[in-house]
Amino acid sequence: MSDTLLKKDFKESDVQRIRNLIKKDYTGRTKITSGYTGKVNEYKEGDIWEEDGRTWTIKNGVRQNISKLKQAKDFYKMPLTCPKCGGSMKHHLHKKMYRIHKFCFDCTIDYEANLRKLGKYKEYEKAMITGNILSFTSDLESFILDSLEQSTTFVTEQGDIEDWKNNSSKNKEKILTELAEFTKHVRNSLK
Question: How far, in Å, CA of 179 to CA of 182, rounded?
Fold first, then answer.
């Protein structure tokens, strides 16, 4: 009677699972099934493919998702050593110069010294200053435009709702015309 009780308590799949665990075969099958098996594609190192609306690749044997922002990440990412001289990029000046020139501070000094020898440093300096001014002007313009679009309703710590209506349509038009005149003046003076 105890023999039939054991047969009812344990299924064949349970026994097979225990056998697999004892043999340390943790991925072994316990049931044999038949049915649909999907198409399995085998990919090699460096292959790039699209699946489920994502782009994938294999690097160092690991399947990785290629992000849509990969180019931006690669642009911002700084290497451990300078691509030009091979020196360490730990110093904060190296980091700053890499973002501008794509090489370390020491290589930047050598580059600028060569420009001085060739007599092209004044052009280089003017281009750098002009670029900085234009960048600052566009940043200022976007900040002001964003500020004009922001909500003027604030909630205080006491829970009161305050509405600051300094950005009336008349003020907005005045600010926008002055901003346009300023940016036009800056850009014309740089030419």
Answer: 5
